[in-house]
Amino acid sequence: MRPSPKLGRRNLEDTAAADQIAGTRAEAEAAIAEARKAHDRLMEAIDILPEGIVFLDSDGRYILWNKKYAEIYNRSSDLFESGARLQDTIRVGVARGDYPEAAGREDAWITERLEKLFHPSGRHEQKLSDGRTILIEERLTGDGGIIGLRVDITELKQREESFRLLFDGNPVPMIVCARDDGRVLGVNEAAAQHYGYSRAAFEQLSIRNLQAYESETPWASEQSGEEQAARTWKHVRADGALIDLAIYSRHLVHNDQPAVLLALMDITERKRAEARLAFLAQHDALTGLPSRNLLRQQIDDKLIQMRRGSEKMAVLVLGLDNFKSINDTLGHAIGDRLLRGVGKRLRSILRQEDIVARLNSDEFAVVQGGLARPEDAAQLCRRLLQALADPYLIDGSSVTIGATIGIAMAPNDGDDAEKLLKNADMALSRAKTETRGTFSYFETGMDARAQSRRKIEIELRDAIQRDLLQPHYQPLIDLSTGRITGFEALVRWPHPERGMIPPSEFIPIAEETGLISGLGRSMLRQACSDAAKWPDEVRVAVNMSPLQFRVGNVLSLVMDALKQSGLPASRLELEITETLVLEKSGQVLATLHALRALGVRISMDDFGTGYSSLSYLRSFPFDKIKVDQSFIRDLAANREAQAIVRSIVSLGKGLGVTITAEGVETEAELRCLRAEGCHEAQGYLFSRPRPNAEIVGLLLAQRDASGGPSSGKAMVA
After folding, report:
1. In sequence order, what are the beta bridge partners of 661?
2. Domains (ranges, CATH) in the chain?
């Protein structure tokens, strides 16, 4: 029997519908499976992120979150489930005390937190009860949902707090500036106090408001630490005072903007001390007047100007009469004040363009140009003598001193500074010989003094040839132990008729005549021979004249003296003066380096008294700097001298050289030198220069006393 056509068609339709439903179900199940896979992949992806991630719907209900999010909120993670509201977990967390910032204002805090959740406007921070700090950033999605980001910034906040404490509590003034325009973003208390501004006022300024002259910022160019330290910046304090600074800069980020941290080292006092040292390199320390070297330069400058016209120039050398007796009877302190008074009087009666300088202990120089005739110089001398003759009131006492003047006229009596000063000095000698308290012109036939000097030259030549000159030795004392570390050899001339002639009378003649070479050779040989018999730790220092270096045989002389005596080179110290280094001779510097290569120590003598002593230290690496006695005299009562000595000692420490103070005469000076950290000292406080026969006794006494305490003044004459 054949089926009904109508029934067969229905069955076919039902079968097709069933197949379609089955296919749709399979597709749905496949889609669901794929969605689950996508969800799992998304979870895997966000779980490896270091930040906490949460997805919320438009009602603030949880959709998904990663492991880091659950770790951050570990106290509330038991409440996290799809469909749960974030605001409910927040309320539970507040009730549990998870948010310490909500304490006492729970409802208000929750309201503020939900406002930030549903209307996000930027990042904010959240404190948790375990001390952690969480950075929160939330954004709205296109369908109104919310994506939240959580970052644990606890360690960063701790570093910021450490920096803040270091910044605020640092005694060094520090400023944070915007890198682009120099606005002050923050200052520490030290900076506020140093500049005299309140913090609020400070933070209204720019770094350029503080800079006195510079327009560029300290961070405008990349510089090394050494380069930053070498530059000096001039800033203005709130009271208008100028200060000198070394500024060190470091780039950083401050409140999400590029910034720079400035550490400001006030070097005002150091710069003043350096300026004072530079001044004293060309000026007399006692009177502040130009030194002889600066005077020579000034005279030569005036001679150049004078050659353009027909005017004359007077060079006067003024010697104070009987100054030594005033020094001996009233003391060096009164003598020094008298010299300062003389310098002030001379300066007060001269024109601005005139020159007054101090040549030595009791001699001054005056230079006046624009003279029509030599007689004009006589009028100047009368004014000077009259002014100086008025009494000086010093410590309630009236002190009177006269003067004698020698005159040399340019261009007739000389066309350079040296010749004019020499001729004026000869005129002074004649005036002193004839009538003190007057003045005398230089005359071409003037030879009385020249004859006297010639006599000394002849006798000195004979004494050198016969080996009659002797070295006397003045001890060098280590101020930390009080022990003798060495001796300076000082030449003495026992004259059969005149007795012991001081070096000041024959050394200049020896240098002018070339006898200094033979004299120096003899002193070097004797000093090395004597020192070879001293204990191994004791050195000997020998003065060397620039002329000896010009001759060019210093190296061979030293090597011969060391070889003949057997003295180790390390125990020999050669003292040279500024004049030698001023020549900037390649031969001289080569000789000095060769001597150091042998092991011989090189010292700069009379530091601070010459033309530009600071520049010498760049020319040669000295082993020792000897501070001239003019800086040591009355050191305890002179704060300015103390500052200078302190600067020199600091300079020595920075260069790694020994600092020795010359001419120490009082316990007060010794205490000051020790306090400033000076290494060595010599002077009559410890001992006068002694012949070698007495040196052995000094060293034996030191050896015998080595077990006892050091007094710091071990050997006193």
Report:
1. 627, 681
2. 52-152 (3.30.450.20), 157-266 (3.30.450.20), 274-446 (3.30.70.270), 452-704 (3.20.20.450)
Q: Tokens standing for 203?
A: 């933070």
8 Å CB contact between 244 and 266: yes
Where do runs of H (alpha helix) occur along 331-374? 332-348
Residue 566: how many CB atoms within 10 A of its CB?
A: 10
Residue ranges of the chain whose pLDDT lies below 70:
1-14, 17, 19, 22-23, 28-31, 33-36, 38-40, 160-163, 165, 223-229, 445-451, 579, 582-585, 608-619, 706-717
Q: How far apart are CA 261 and CA 160, in angstroms?
A: 14
Give strand ranges (E) for 212-371.
233-236, 242-254, 257-266, 312-320, 355-360, 363-371
Instruction: Supply the pLDDT for residue 698.
Output: 85
Tokens describing residue 56 = 């919320």
CB 609 within 8 A of CB 625: no
pLDDT number for residue 595: 94
The pLDDT assigned to 708 comes to 46
Contacts of 54 (CB under 8 A, 6+ apart): 62, 64, 65, 66, 69, 86, 147, 148, 150
Residue 112 backbone zone (phi > 0: left; psi -120 to 50: alpha; other: beta): alpha
pLDDT on residue 634: 79
d(CA 373, CA 5): 158
Look up residue 678 and give its two tokens: 């000076």
The string of DSSP codes covering 155-180 is: HHHHHHHHHHHHHHH-SS-EEEEETT
pLDDT of residue 621: 78
DSSP 608: T
329: three-class secondary structure by DSSP: helix
- Residue 82, amino acid: S
- Cβ count near 50 (within 10 Å): 7
- Cα distance between residue 135 and residue 260, in whole Å: 25
Three-state secondary structure call for residue 12? helix
Q: What is the pLDDT of residues 615-673, one digit of tens each?
A: 666 667 789 999 888 888 878 888 888 888 898 898 888 888 999 999 999 999 999 99
Q: CA–CA separation, 102 vs 92, rounded Å?
A: 12
Helices and strands of the chain, counted as H and E runs: 27, 27
Own/partner long-range contacts of 226-234 (Cβ < 8 Å, ≥24 apart):
232/267, 232/271
Beta bridge partners of 500: 494
Quote the pTM value: 0.43
Burial 118-153 (b: 16+ CB within 10 A, else e): eebeeeeebbbeeeebbbbebeeeeeebbebbbbbe
pLDDT in tens, 522-532: 999 999 999 99
Round to whole Å and give the CA distance between 633 and 284.
13
Give residue 565's pLDDT.
Answer: 96
Residue with tokens 């340019």: 410
Phi/psi for 497 (5° steps) reads -110, -40
- Separation of alpha carbons 483 and 535, rounded Å: 13
Strand-by-strand arrangement of the 146-152 sheet: 62-65, 52-56, 146-152, 133-140, 124-127
- Asked if 487 contacts 541 with a C-beta cutoff of 8 angstroms, the reply is yes
Q: 56: Cβ–Cβ under 8 A, 6 or more apart, which residues?
A: 62, 63, 86, 145, 146, 147, 148
